[in-house]
Amino acid sequence: MAKGTAPGADQDWWALWPGLFRKELAAFPRLEIAPRIVHKKNGVLILEADWPVQGQTEPMLLRIGYSPLHPFFRPAVAAPNATFERHQNPLSRELCLLTQEAGQWDSNQLVADFIQERLEHLLRALKARKDGRWGDAAGLEEQAADPLMPYFLGTSEEDSVILFDGQSGLPPGPYGLMEVVCSSRSSRTGAAFEGVLRQLKTSSGAAVGKRFGFPTESQDAQVLTGRWVKFTPPATTDARELLRLAEEELARQAVMQPGSVRKVNDAARGALCITGIVFPEEVKYGPEKDGAGWVFLVERPALLDGTTGGAPQLVLGERAGKDDIFSRLPVAKSLLPKKAVVVGAGAIGSFAGLELARAGVGEVTFLDFDTVQPGNSLRWPLGRSAWGRSKAAALANFIAENYPWTRASFAQGRLGAAFTDVASLPDGSANVLAPVFDLLRDTDVVVDASASEEVQLALAHHSKRLGVPYVIGYATHGVAGGVVARFLPDGEGCFVCLQEHWKDERIPEPRVDNAGLVIPVGCNAPTFTGGGFDLQEVSLEIVRTAVGLLSSGSYDPGGWTVAVLTLKNEDGFRTLPRWEGHPCPAHPKCCGAKR
Ligand SMILES: [Zn+2]
Ligand SMILES: [Zn+2]
After folding, report:
1. N or C: which terminus of the chain has fewer CB atoms within 10 Å of its end residue's CB?
2. Which residues are close to ligand 2, an ion, with C-beta < 5 A?
3. In terms of domains, do 63 and 167 share one?
Protein backbone atom coordinates (compact mmCIF):
# COMPACT_ATOMS: atom_id res chain seq x y z
CA MET A 1 0.00 0.00 0.00
CA ALA A 2 1.27 3.47 -0.82
CA LYS A 3 2.38 5.63 2.07
CA GLY A 4 -0.24 7.99 3.42
CA THR A 5 -3.19 6.08 1.95
CA ALA A 6 -6.07 5.76 4.38
CA PRO A 7 -6.48 2.14 5.55
CA GLY A 8 -9.10 0.36 3.51
CA ALA A 9 -9.06 3.00 0.78
CA ASP A 10 -7.71 0.42 -1.64
CA GLN A 11 -10.87 -1.59 -1.02
CA ASP A 12 -13.41 1.12 -1.87
CA TRP A 13 -14.54 0.55 -5.42
CA TRP A 14 -14.86 4.29 -6.04
CA ALA A 15 -11.21 4.69 -5.06
CA LEU A 16 -10.13 1.78 -7.23
CA TRP A 17 -12.08 3.06 -10.22
CA PRO A 18 -12.62 6.83 -9.87
CA GLY A 19 -13.64 7.02 -13.52
CA LEU A 20 -16.45 4.55 -12.96
CA PHE A 21 -17.63 6.47 -9.92
CA ARG A 22 -17.84 9.69 -11.96
CA LYS A 23 -19.71 7.87 -14.73
CA GLU A 24 -22.17 6.35 -12.26
CA LEU A 25 -23.01 9.75 -10.77
CA ALA A 26 -23.20 11.46 -14.16
CA ALA A 27 -25.79 8.95 -15.36
CA PHE A 28 -28.46 10.37 -13.02
CA PRO A 29 -28.63 13.99 -14.29
CA ARG A 30 -29.11 12.61 -17.79
CA LEU A 31 -32.40 11.19 -16.48
CA GLU A 32 -33.08 14.55 -14.79
CA ILE A 33 -32.51 13.06 -11.38
CA ALA A 34 -30.33 14.65 -8.73
CA PRO A 35 -29.20 12.01 -6.26
CA ARG A 36 -27.93 12.81 -2.75
CA ILE A 37 -25.08 10.86 -1.21
CA VAL A 38 -26.37 9.50 2.10
CA HIS A 39 -23.37 7.39 2.99
CA LYS A 40 -19.95 6.85 1.44
CA LYS A 41 -17.58 5.06 3.75
CA ASN A 42 -15.89 1.71 4.35
CA GLY A 43 -16.91 0.29 1.02
CA VAL A 44 -20.57 1.26 1.32
CA LEU A 45 -22.16 3.82 -0.98
CA ILE A 46 -25.83 4.73 -0.52
CA LEU A 47 -27.64 7.36 -2.57
CA GLU A 48 -31.11 8.78 -2.23
CA ALA A 49 -33.12 10.03 -5.18
CA ASP A 50 -36.62 11.27 -5.96
CA TRP A 51 -37.50 9.16 -8.93
CA PRO A 52 -40.12 10.39 -11.39
CA VAL A 53 -42.66 7.67 -12.17
CA GLN A 54 -44.89 7.69 -15.21
CA GLY A 55 -48.53 8.37 -14.37
CA GLN A 56 -47.71 9.61 -10.87
CA THR A 57 -47.55 13.24 -9.86
CA GLU A 58 -45.19 12.70 -6.94
CA PRO A 59 -41.76 11.17 -7.49
CA MET A 60 -40.92 7.96 -5.65
CA LEU A 61 -38.20 8.12 -3.02
CA LEU A 62 -35.56 5.50 -3.76
CA ARG A 63 -32.62 4.49 -1.63
CA ILE A 64 -29.91 3.06 -3.83
CA GLY A 65 -27.21 0.88 -2.32
CA TYR A 66 -24.18 0.01 -4.42
CA SER A 67 -22.57 -3.32 -3.70
CA PRO A 68 -19.19 -3.06 -1.94
CA LEU A 69 -18.10 -5.25 -4.84
CA HIS A 70 -19.54 -2.90 -7.45
CA PRO A 71 -19.68 -3.34 -10.42
CA PHE A 72 -19.42 -7.13 -10.15
CA PHE A 73 -22.51 -7.39 -7.94
CA ARG A 74 -25.99 -5.96 -8.35
CA PRO A 75 -27.12 -2.91 -6.38
CA ALA A 76 -30.03 -2.95 -3.93
CA VAL A 77 -32.86 -0.47 -4.35
CA ALA A 78 -35.42 0.27 -1.65
CA ALA A 79 -38.61 2.30 -1.90
CA PRO A 80 -39.04 3.17 1.79
CA ASN A 81 -42.27 5.13 1.36
CA ALA A 82 -44.03 2.92 -1.17
CA THR A 83 -45.87 -0.34 -0.57
CA PHE A 84 -46.21 -2.90 -3.33
CA GLU A 85 -48.14 -6.11 -2.95
CA ARG A 86 -45.27 -7.93 -4.59
CA HIS A 87 -41.65 -7.63 -5.66
CA GLN A 88 -40.87 -5.76 -2.48
CA ASN A 89 -39.49 -7.08 0.75
CA PRO A 90 -42.09 -5.96 3.30
CA LEU A 91 -39.41 -5.52 5.96
CA SER A 92 -36.53 -3.85 4.15
CA ARG A 93 -38.78 -2.32 1.46
CA GLU A 94 -36.21 -3.41 -1.10
CA LEU A 95 -37.54 -3.96 -4.59
CA CYS A 96 -36.80 -6.99 -6.65
CA LEU A 97 -35.62 -5.40 -9.82
CA LEU A 98 -33.96 -8.63 -10.89
CA THR A 99 -34.75 -12.23 -10.15
CA GLN A 100 -32.37 -14.05 -7.84
CA GLU A 101 -30.94 -16.07 -10.69
CA ALA A 102 -27.33 -15.65 -11.68
CA GLY A 103 -26.51 -13.93 -14.94
CA GLN A 104 -29.23 -11.29 -14.60
CA TRP A 105 -27.05 -8.39 -13.59
CA ASP A 106 -25.07 -6.75 -16.37
CA SER A 107 -22.00 -5.18 -14.79
CA ASN A 108 -21.55 -2.91 -17.81
CA GLN A 109 -24.82 -1.12 -17.19
CA LEU A 110 -24.76 2.01 -15.05
CA VAL A 111 -26.95 1.78 -11.98
CA ALA A 112 -29.09 4.81 -12.92
CA ASP A 113 -29.95 3.29 -16.31
CA PHE A 114 -30.53 -0.07 -14.69
CA ILE A 115 -33.07 1.37 -12.24
CA GLN A 116 -34.82 3.35 -14.95
CA GLU A 117 -35.26 0.25 -17.06
CA ARG A 118 -36.14 -2.27 -14.36
CA LEU A 119 -38.41 -0.04 -12.28
CA GLU A 120 -40.59 0.62 -15.28
CA HIS A 121 -40.68 -3.13 -15.94
CA LEU A 122 -41.61 -3.85 -12.32
CA LEU A 123 -44.45 -1.33 -12.32
CA ARG A 124 -45.85 -2.83 -15.52
CA ALA A 125 -45.76 -6.32 -13.97
CA LEU A 126 -47.55 -5.05 -10.86
CA LYS A 127 -50.18 -3.33 -13.00
CA ALA A 128 -50.78 -6.52 -14.99
CA ARG A 129 -51.26 -8.49 -11.78
CA LYS A 130 -53.61 -5.87 -10.40
CA ASP A 131 -55.70 -5.99 -13.57
CA GLY A 132 -55.74 -9.78 -13.41
CA ARG A 133 -53.85 -10.08 -16.70
CA TRP A 134 -51.87 -13.15 -15.62
CA GLY A 135 -50.62 -13.92 -19.09
CA ASP A 136 -49.01 -10.46 -19.32
CA ALA A 137 -47.70 -10.64 -15.76
CA ALA A 138 -46.10 -14.01 -16.42
CA GLY A 139 -44.19 -12.49 -19.32
CA LEU A 140 -42.92 -9.63 -17.18
CA GLU A 141 -41.94 -11.30 -13.93
CA GLU A 142 -40.30 -14.40 -12.59
CA GLN A 143 -42.90 -17.14 -12.52
CA ALA A 144 -42.31 -18.13 -8.97
CA ALA A 145 -44.29 -17.99 -5.80
CA ASP A 146 -43.58 -15.12 -3.43
CA PRO A 147 -44.22 -16.68 -0.04
CA LEU A 148 -44.44 -14.85 3.25
CA MET A 149 -42.59 -17.44 5.34
CA PRO A 150 -39.03 -16.42 4.40
CA TYR A 151 -39.56 -12.95 5.86
CA PHE A 152 -39.80 -14.41 9.37
CA LEU A 153 -36.38 -15.94 9.00
CA GLY A 154 -34.40 -12.97 10.25
CA THR A 155 -34.45 -13.35 14.01
CA SER A 156 -35.60 -16.92 14.54
CA GLU A 157 -34.10 -18.98 17.34
CA GLU A 158 -30.67 -20.28 16.45
CA ASP A 159 -30.56 -24.01 15.60
CA SER A 160 -34.28 -24.62 16.20
CA VAL A 161 -36.82 -25.66 13.61
CA ILE A 162 -40.32 -27.09 13.37
CA LEU A 163 -40.91 -29.39 10.41
CA PHE A 164 -44.28 -29.71 8.76
CA ASP A 165 -45.89 -31.31 5.74
CA GLY A 166 -45.82 -28.69 3.00
CA GLN A 167 -48.43 -30.59 1.02
CA SER A 168 -51.21 -30.19 3.55
CA GLY A 169 -53.28 -27.08 2.98
CA LEU A 170 -54.87 -24.62 5.38
CA PRO A 171 -56.70 -26.34 8.21
CA PRO A 172 -60.43 -25.71 8.44
CA GLY A 173 -61.48 -23.78 11.52
CA PRO A 174 -59.92 -20.70 13.10
CA TYR A 175 -57.80 -22.28 15.87
CA GLY A 176 -57.08 -25.49 17.71
CA LEU A 177 -54.50 -27.75 19.29
CA MET A 178 -51.48 -29.37 17.72
CA GLU A 179 -49.15 -32.23 18.54
CA VAL A 180 -45.48 -31.48 18.06
CA VAL A 181 -42.87 -34.23 18.43
CA CYS A 182 -39.86 -32.48 19.94
CA SER A 183 -36.29 -33.58 20.42
CA SER A 184 -33.50 -31.39 21.69
CA ARG A 185 -30.63 -30.36 19.49
CA SER A 186 -27.13 -29.50 20.54
CA SER A 187 -26.55 -25.80 20.21
CA ARG A 188 -24.36 -23.01 21.52
CA THR A 189 -27.39 -21.57 23.26
CA GLY A 190 -28.32 -24.93 24.79
CA ALA A 191 -32.05 -24.53 24.25
CA ALA A 192 -32.49 -25.57 20.64
CA PHE A 193 -34.91 -28.24 19.48
CA GLU A 194 -36.35 -29.89 16.42
CA GLY A 195 -40.10 -30.25 16.29
CA VAL A 196 -42.24 -32.25 13.90
CA LEU A 197 -45.78 -30.94 13.53
CA ARG A 198 -47.47 -34.32 13.72
CA GLN A 199 -51.16 -33.62 14.01
CA LEU A 200 -53.49 -30.64 14.03
CA LYS A 201 -56.55 -30.97 16.22
CA THR A 202 -59.68 -29.08 17.06
CA SER A 203 -59.98 -27.51 20.50
CA SER A 204 -61.70 -30.66 21.72
CA GLY A 205 -58.88 -32.87 20.46
CA ALA A 206 -60.41 -34.30 17.28
CA ALA A 207 -57.80 -34.83 14.55
CA VAL A 208 -57.80 -32.30 11.71
CA GLY A 209 -56.17 -33.34 8.45
CA LYS A 210 -53.55 -36.01 7.92
CA ARG A 211 -51.05 -37.13 10.50
CA PHE A 212 -47.46 -36.32 9.55
CA GLY A 213 -44.25 -38.03 10.54
CA PHE A 214 -41.14 -39.80 9.33
CA PRO A 215 -40.88 -43.59 9.14
CA THR A 216 -38.55 -43.58 12.13
CA GLU A 217 -38.55 -41.11 14.98
CA SER A 218 -35.81 -40.63 17.53
CA GLN A 219 -36.49 -42.44 20.77
CA ASP A 220 -35.94 -39.54 23.13
CA ALA A 221 -38.52 -37.42 21.31
CA GLN A 222 -41.28 -35.94 23.41
CA VAL A 223 -44.81 -35.17 22.25
CA LEU A 224 -45.89 -31.67 23.25
CA THR A 225 -49.29 -30.07 22.85
CA GLY A 226 -49.30 -26.60 21.36
CA ARG A 227 -51.95 -24.32 19.95
CA TRP A 228 -52.51 -22.96 16.47
CA VAL A 229 -54.43 -19.99 15.20
CA LYS A 230 -55.22 -18.98 11.64
CA PHE A 231 -54.65 -15.42 10.41
CA THR A 232 -52.24 -13.61 8.11
CA PRO A 233 -49.59 -11.98 10.27
CA PRO A 234 -47.70 -8.88 9.19
CA ALA A 235 -44.16 -9.48 8.01
CA THR A 236 -42.25 -8.75 11.16
CA THR A 237 -39.46 -10.46 13.00
CA ASP A 238 -40.73 -9.18 16.35
CA ALA A 239 -41.70 -12.38 18.18
CA ARG A 240 -43.39 -10.53 21.02
CA GLU A 241 -45.56 -8.63 18.57
CA LEU A 242 -46.50 -11.81 16.68
CA LEU A 243 -47.42 -13.55 19.92
CA ARG A 244 -49.51 -10.56 20.96
CA LEU A 245 -51.35 -10.69 17.61
CA ALA A 246 -51.93 -14.44 17.96
CA GLU A 247 -53.38 -13.91 21.43
CA GLU A 248 -55.48 -11.02 20.18
CA GLU A 249 -56.89 -13.25 17.45
CA LEU A 250 -57.64 -16.00 19.98
CA ALA A 251 -59.31 -13.44 22.26
CA ARG A 252 -61.43 -12.30 19.32
CA GLN A 253 -62.51 -15.91 18.77
CA ALA A 254 -63.17 -16.26 22.50
CA VAL A 255 -66.01 -13.76 22.28
CA MET A 256 -67.96 -16.45 20.42
CA GLN A 257 -66.33 -19.56 21.89
CA PRO A 258 -64.99 -18.68 25.34
CA GLY A 259 -64.81 -22.26 26.68
CA SER A 260 -63.17 -23.72 23.62
CA VAL A 261 -60.50 -21.01 23.38
CA ARG A 262 -59.74 -21.39 27.08
CA LYS A 263 -59.25 -25.12 26.54
CA VAL A 264 -56.74 -24.42 23.78
CA ASN A 265 -54.84 -21.86 25.81
CA ASP A 266 -54.71 -24.12 28.87
CA ALA A 267 -53.62 -27.23 26.98
CA ALA A 268 -50.76 -25.40 25.34
CA ARG A 269 -49.14 -24.42 28.63
CA GLY A 270 -45.97 -26.26 29.58
CA ALA A 271 -42.24 -25.91 29.97
CA LEU A 272 -42.16 -25.25 26.24
CA CYS A 273 -45.24 -23.43 24.93
CA ILE A 274 -45.60 -23.54 21.17
CA THR A 275 -47.97 -21.27 19.29
CA GLY A 276 -48.31 -21.80 15.56
CA ILE A 277 -49.68 -19.12 13.26
CA VAL A 278 -50.97 -20.61 10.00
CA PHE A 279 -51.83 -18.46 7.02
CA PRO A 280 -52.67 -18.78 3.32
CA GLU A 281 -49.42 -18.99 1.40
CA GLU A 282 -48.47 -18.76 -2.24
CA VAL A 283 -46.75 -22.03 -3.05
CA LYS A 284 -46.83 -21.72 -6.80
CA TYR A 285 -47.01 -18.91 -9.33
CA GLY A 286 -50.47 -17.52 -9.96
CA PRO A 287 -53.30 -15.67 -8.29
CA GLU A 288 -54.16 -18.39 -5.75
CA LYS A 289 -52.73 -18.76 -2.31
CA ASP A 290 -53.58 -22.41 -1.90
CA GLY A 291 -50.79 -23.53 0.38
CA ALA A 292 -50.35 -23.10 4.10
CA GLY A 293 -47.49 -21.15 5.62
CA TRP A 294 -46.45 -21.41 9.26
CA VAL A 295 -44.59 -19.31 11.72
CA PHE A 296 -44.01 -20.60 15.23
CA LEU A 297 -43.54 -18.83 18.54
CA VAL A 298 -42.01 -20.50 21.52
CA GLU A 299 -42.13 -19.46 25.14
CA ARG A 300 -40.22 -21.06 27.95
CA PRO A 301 -41.98 -19.84 31.08
CA ALA A 302 -39.58 -19.33 33.94
CA LEU A 303 -39.22 -22.30 36.24
CA LEU A 304 -39.10 -21.82 39.99
CA ASP A 305 -35.32 -21.92 39.98
CA GLY A 306 -35.31 -19.27 37.28
CA THR A 307 -33.18 -21.28 34.88
CA THR A 308 -35.34 -20.73 31.83
CA GLY A 309 -37.77 -18.11 30.74
CA GLY A 310 -37.09 -15.00 28.77
CA ALA A 311 -38.72 -13.44 25.79
CA PRO A 312 -40.77 -15.42 23.26
CA GLN A 313 -38.74 -16.70 20.34
CA LEU A 314 -39.57 -17.08 16.69
CA VAL A 315 -38.95 -20.60 15.43
CA LEU A 316 -38.46 -21.32 11.78
CA GLY A 317 -40.90 -23.63 10.01
CA GLU A 318 -39.61 -25.87 7.22
CA ARG A 319 -41.50 -28.09 4.80
CA ALA A 320 -40.17 -31.63 5.16
CA GLY A 321 -42.77 -33.88 3.56
CA LYS A 322 -41.67 -36.45 1.01
CA ASP A 323 -42.84 -34.28 -1.86
CA ASP A 324 -41.22 -31.20 -0.34
CA ILE A 325 -37.84 -32.88 -0.04
CA PHE A 326 -37.72 -34.83 -3.27
CA SER A 327 -39.25 -32.29 -5.66
CA ARG A 328 -35.74 -31.40 -6.90
CA LEU A 329 -35.08 -34.97 -7.99
CA PRO A 330 -37.95 -36.43 -10.01
CA VAL A 331 -36.33 -39.87 -10.09
CA ALA A 332 -36.62 -40.06 -6.29
CA LYS A 333 -40.34 -40.79 -6.58
CA SER A 334 -39.57 -44.12 -8.20
CA LEU A 335 -36.85 -44.90 -5.63
CA LEU A 336 -38.85 -44.31 -2.46
CA PRO A 337 -40.56 -47.73 -2.56
CA LYS A 338 -37.25 -49.51 -3.35
CA LYS A 339 -34.75 -51.36 -1.18
CA ALA A 340 -30.99 -51.76 -1.51
CA VAL A 341 -28.58 -54.01 0.37
CA VAL A 342 -25.03 -52.67 0.49
CA VAL A 343 -22.43 -55.31 1.25
CA GLY A 344 -19.17 -53.82 2.44
CA ALA A 345 -19.25 -50.40 4.10
CA GLY A 346 -15.67 -49.43 3.35
CA ALA A 347 -14.37 -46.52 1.34
CA ILE A 348 -16.63 -47.29 -1.62
CA GLY A 349 -19.75 -48.88 -0.14
CA SER A 350 -20.14 -46.24 2.57
CA PHE A 351 -20.36 -43.36 0.12
CA ALA A 352 -22.51 -45.35 -2.28
CA GLY A 353 -24.96 -46.31 0.46
CA LEU A 354 -25.27 -42.75 1.74
CA GLU A 355 -25.81 -41.45 -1.76
CA LEU A 356 -28.55 -44.01 -2.36
CA ALA A 357 -30.27 -42.73 0.79
CA ARG A 358 -29.86 -39.12 -0.34
CA ALA A 359 -31.34 -39.99 -3.72
CA GLY A 360 -34.44 -41.27 -1.97
CA VAL A 361 -34.06 -45.07 -1.96
CA GLY A 362 -36.64 -46.08 0.63
CA GLU A 363 -34.61 -48.68 2.47
CA VAL A 364 -30.86 -49.22 2.72
CA THR A 365 -29.28 -52.08 4.66
CA PHE A 366 -25.54 -52.24 5.31
CA LEU A 367 -23.66 -55.48 5.84
CA ASP A 368 -20.17 -55.19 7.28
CA PHE A 369 -17.98 -56.69 10.00
CA ASP A 370 -15.53 -53.84 10.49
CA THR A 371 -15.28 -50.94 12.92
CA VAL A 372 -14.32 -47.38 12.00
CA GLN A 373 -10.73 -46.53 12.84
CA PRO A 374 -9.38 -42.98 12.92
CA GLY A 375 -7.16 -43.91 9.98
CA ASN A 376 -10.26 -44.76 7.91
CA SER A 377 -11.68 -41.29 8.09
CA LEU A 378 -9.66 -39.88 5.24
CA ARG A 379 -11.76 -41.98 2.91
CA TRP A 380 -14.91 -42.51 4.86
CA PRO A 381 -17.94 -40.22 5.07
CA LEU A 382 -18.06 -39.89 8.86
CA GLY A 383 -15.24 -38.80 11.11
CA ARG A 384 -14.53 -38.74 14.81
CA SER A 385 -18.14 -39.25 15.88
CA ALA A 386 -17.93 -42.74 14.34
CA TRP A 387 -14.46 -43.86 15.48
CA GLY A 388 -14.60 -47.20 17.24
CA ARG A 389 -18.16 -47.87 16.10
CA SER A 390 -19.38 -50.55 13.75
CA LYS A 391 -19.18 -49.17 10.22
CA ALA A 392 -22.57 -50.60 9.27
CA ALA A 393 -24.28 -49.31 12.41
CA ALA A 394 -22.69 -45.86 12.17
CA LEU A 395 -23.93 -45.41 8.60
CA ALA A 396 -27.42 -46.69 9.39
CA ASN A 397 -27.68 -44.31 12.35
CA PHE A 398 -26.41 -41.40 10.30
CA ILE A 399 -29.06 -42.05 7.66
CA ALA A 400 -31.81 -42.40 10.25
CA GLU A 401 -30.84 -39.06 11.75
CA ASN A 402 -30.32 -37.15 8.53
CA TYR A 403 -32.39 -38.71 5.77
CA PRO A 404 -35.60 -39.58 7.57
CA TRP A 405 -37.46 -40.76 4.48
CA THR A 406 -35.03 -43.66 4.13
CA ARG A 407 -35.26 -46.60 6.50
CA ALA A 408 -31.75 -47.67 7.33
CA SER A 409 -30.68 -50.89 8.98
CA PHE A 410 -27.54 -52.94 9.33
CA ALA A 411 -26.28 -56.43 9.91
CA GLN A 412 -22.89 -56.91 11.44
CA GLY A 413 -20.78 -59.92 10.75
CA ARG A 414 -18.41 -61.51 8.33
CA LEU A 415 -20.34 -63.02 5.46
CA GLY A 416 -19.46 -66.67 4.90
CA ALA A 417 -17.07 -66.91 7.84
CA ALA A 418 -16.49 -70.55 8.80
CA PHE A 419 -16.87 -71.77 12.38
CA THR A 420 -14.53 -74.02 14.31
CA ASP A 421 -16.20 -73.74 17.68
CA VAL A 422 -19.76 -74.93 18.21
CA ALA A 423 -20.07 -72.72 21.27
CA SER A 424 -19.52 -69.63 19.12
CA LEU A 425 -22.50 -70.39 16.87
CA PRO A 426 -25.41 -67.96 16.96
CA ASP A 427 -28.42 -69.10 18.97
CA GLY A 428 -31.39 -70.68 17.29
CA SER A 429 -32.12 -73.50 14.96
CA ALA A 430 -32.08 -71.56 11.68
CA ASN A 431 -29.34 -71.80 9.10
CA VAL A 432 -26.58 -69.31 9.88
CA LEU A 433 -27.13 -67.76 6.46
CA ALA A 434 -30.89 -67.31 6.90
CA PRO A 435 -30.68 -63.62 7.87
CA VAL A 436 -28.55 -62.85 4.80
CA PHE A 437 -30.75 -64.83 2.43
CA ASP A 438 -33.83 -63.15 3.88
CA LEU A 439 -32.26 -59.79 3.07
CA LEU A 440 -31.30 -60.83 -0.45
CA ARG A 441 -34.73 -62.26 -1.20
CA ASP A 442 -36.40 -59.07 -0.02
CA THR A 443 -34.25 -56.44 -1.74
CA ASP A 444 -34.47 -54.77 -5.14
CA VAL A 445 -30.72 -54.57 -5.69
CA VAL A 446 -27.57 -55.95 -4.10
CA VAL A 447 -24.62 -53.55 -4.12
CA ASP A 448 -21.39 -55.42 -3.56
CA ALA A 449 -18.60 -53.10 -2.47
CA SER A 450 -16.88 -55.76 -0.38
CA ALA A 451 -13.72 -55.84 -2.53
CA SER A 452 -13.46 -59.48 -1.47
CA GLU A 453 -13.41 -62.11 -4.19
CA GLU A 454 -14.96 -64.71 -1.90
CA VAL A 455 -17.87 -62.43 -1.13
CA GLN A 456 -18.20 -61.38 -4.77
CA LEU A 457 -18.35 -64.92 -6.15
CA ALA A 458 -20.82 -66.04 -3.49
CA LEU A 459 -23.09 -63.01 -3.75
CA ALA A 460 -23.04 -62.96 -7.55
CA HIS A 461 -24.11 -66.60 -7.52
CA HIS A 462 -26.85 -66.29 -4.91
CA SER A 463 -28.21 -62.99 -6.26
CA LYS A 464 -28.75 -64.65 -9.61
CA ARG A 465 -30.29 -67.70 -7.97
CA LEU A 466 -32.68 -65.52 -5.96
CA GLY A 467 -33.51 -63.29 -8.92
CA VAL A 468 -32.01 -60.04 -7.59
CA PRO A 469 -29.99 -57.54 -9.67
CA TYR A 470 -26.36 -57.54 -8.53
CA VAL A 471 -24.11 -54.48 -8.84
CA ILE A 472 -20.44 -54.86 -8.06
CA GLY A 473 -17.87 -52.10 -7.75
CA TYR A 474 -14.29 -51.87 -6.62
CA ALA A 475 -11.08 -49.96 -7.19
CA THR A 476 -7.80 -51.59 -8.12
CA HIS A 477 -4.54 -51.33 -6.19
CA GLY A 478 -3.17 -47.83 -6.10
CA VAL A 479 -6.57 -46.62 -7.32
CA ALA A 480 -5.24 -46.75 -10.86
CA GLY A 481 -8.64 -47.90 -12.04
CA GLY A 482 -11.83 -49.61 -11.09
CA VAL A 483 -14.80 -51.64 -12.19
CA VAL A 484 -18.54 -51.27 -11.86
CA ALA A 485 -20.61 -54.08 -13.34
CA ARG A 486 -24.23 -55.12 -13.09
CA PHE A 487 -25.53 -58.65 -13.47
CA LEU A 488 -29.24 -59.06 -13.88
CA PRO A 489 -30.98 -62.36 -13.14
CA ASP A 490 -31.99 -62.69 -16.79
CA GLY A 491 -28.75 -61.20 -18.15
CA GLU A 492 -26.54 -63.06 -20.61
CA GLY A 493 -23.22 -63.28 -18.83
CA CYS A 494 -22.46 -63.52 -15.14
CA PHE A 495 -19.63 -62.41 -12.89
CA VAL A 496 -17.73 -65.63 -13.65
CA CYS A 497 -18.22 -65.04 -17.38
CA LEU A 498 -16.62 -61.61 -16.87
CA GLN A 499 -13.57 -63.21 -15.26
CA GLU A 500 -13.27 -65.57 -18.23
CA HIS A 501 -13.52 -62.64 -20.66
CA TRP A 502 -10.74 -60.94 -18.73
CA LYS A 503 -8.57 -64.06 -19.03
CA ASP A 504 -9.24 -64.07 -22.79
CA GLU A 505 -8.56 -60.32 -22.84
CA ARG A 506 -11.83 -59.76 -24.67
CA ILE A 507 -12.72 -57.12 -22.10
CA PRO A 508 -9.86 -54.91 -20.89
CA GLU A 509 -8.99 -55.29 -17.22
CA PRO A 510 -8.77 -52.17 -15.08
CA ARG A 511 -5.26 -50.84 -14.55
CA VAL A 512 -3.39 -51.73 -11.36
CA ASP A 513 -0.65 -49.75 -9.61
CA ASN A 514 1.11 -52.02 -7.15
CA ALA A 515 3.24 -49.21 -5.81
CA GLY A 516 0.38 -48.20 -3.56
CA LEU A 517 0.03 -51.12 -1.18
CA VAL A 518 0.00 -50.71 2.59
CA ILE A 519 0.25 -53.64 4.98
CA PRO A 520 -1.41 -52.67 8.24
CA VAL A 521 -0.18 -53.88 11.63
CA GLY A 522 -1.11 -57.43 12.54
CA CYS A 523 -2.51 -60.28 10.55
CA ASN A 524 -4.64 -58.08 8.31
CA ALA A 525 -5.30 -58.05 4.63
CA PRO A 526 -3.18 -55.57 2.74
CA THR A 527 -4.97 -52.33 2.15
CA PHE A 528 -4.16 -49.68 -0.40
CA THR A 529 -3.18 -46.06 -0.43
CA GLY A 530 -5.54 -43.71 -2.15
CA GLY A 531 -7.89 -40.94 -1.25
CA GLY A 532 -11.64 -40.91 -0.92
CA PHE A 533 -11.70 -38.37 -3.71
CA ASP A 534 -10.43 -41.02 -6.14
CA LEU A 535 -12.41 -43.92 -4.74
CA GLN A 536 -15.66 -41.99 -4.89
CA GLU A 537 -15.39 -42.10 -8.66
CA VAL A 538 -16.34 -45.77 -8.30
CA SER A 539 -18.99 -45.10 -5.63
CA LEU A 540 -20.77 -42.62 -7.88
CA GLU A 541 -20.92 -44.99 -10.84
CA ILE A 542 -22.28 -47.69 -8.51
CA VAL A 543 -25.01 -45.28 -7.45
CA ARG A 544 -25.85 -44.25 -11.01
CA THR A 545 -26.07 -47.90 -12.02
CA ALA A 546 -28.21 -48.86 -9.03
CA VAL A 547 -30.50 -45.85 -9.48
CA GLY A 548 -30.85 -46.75 -13.15
CA LEU A 549 -31.86 -50.30 -12.26
CA LEU A 550 -34.23 -49.22 -9.49
CA SER A 551 -35.93 -46.28 -11.13
CA SER A 552 -38.18 -48.22 -13.52
CA GLY A 553 -37.10 -46.21 -16.52
CA SER A 554 -36.94 -42.68 -15.13
CA TYR A 555 -33.12 -42.72 -14.96
CA ASP A 556 -31.18 -44.33 -17.80
CA PRO A 557 -29.20 -47.31 -16.47
CA GLY A 558 -26.92 -47.21 -19.53
CA GLY A 559 -26.59 -49.87 -22.20
CA TRP A 560 -23.40 -51.55 -20.97
CA THR A 561 -22.85 -54.31 -18.42
CA VAL A 562 -19.27 -53.70 -17.37
CA ALA A 563 -17.77 -50.25 -16.88
CA VAL A 564 -13.99 -50.04 -16.59
CA LEU A 565 -12.42 -46.96 -15.03
CA THR A 566 -8.95 -45.57 -15.71
CA LEU A 567 -7.45 -43.05 -13.29
CA LYS A 568 -3.74 -43.55 -14.08
CA ASN A 569 -1.99 -44.24 -17.36
CA GLU A 570 0.73 -46.88 -18.02
CA ASP A 571 3.39 -44.60 -16.58
CA GLY A 572 1.47 -44.06 -13.38
CA PHE A 573 0.46 -40.49 -14.18
CA ARG A 574 -2.98 -39.31 -13.29
CA THR A 575 -5.42 -39.07 -16.16
CA LEU A 576 -8.88 -37.59 -16.16
CA PRO A 577 -11.30 -40.29 -15.01
CA ARG A 578 -12.27 -42.30 -18.06
CA TRP A 579 -15.04 -44.88 -18.10
CA GLU A 580 -15.47 -47.42 -20.85
CA GLY A 581 -18.56 -49.56 -21.14
CA HIS A 582 -18.56 -53.16 -22.39
CA PRO A 583 -21.18 -55.84 -22.89
CA CYS A 584 -20.65 -59.11 -21.06
CA PRO A 585 -21.92 -61.94 -23.25
CA ALA A 586 -22.22 -65.49 -21.93
CA HIS A 587 -18.78 -67.11 -21.94
CA PRO A 588 -18.47 -70.60 -23.47
CA LYS A 589 -16.72 -71.84 -20.31
CA CYS A 590 -19.56 -70.57 -18.10
CA CYS A 591 -23.09 -69.45 -18.94
CA GLY A 592 -22.48 -70.08 -22.65
CA ALA A 593 -21.41 -73.72 -22.21
CA LYS A 594 -23.37 -76.22 -24.32
CA ARG A 595 -25.01 -78.70 -22.05
ZN1 LIG B 1 -40.28 -10.35 -7.18
ZN1 LIG C 1 -21.46 -67.09 -16.40
Report:
1. C
2. 494, 496-497, 590-591
3. no
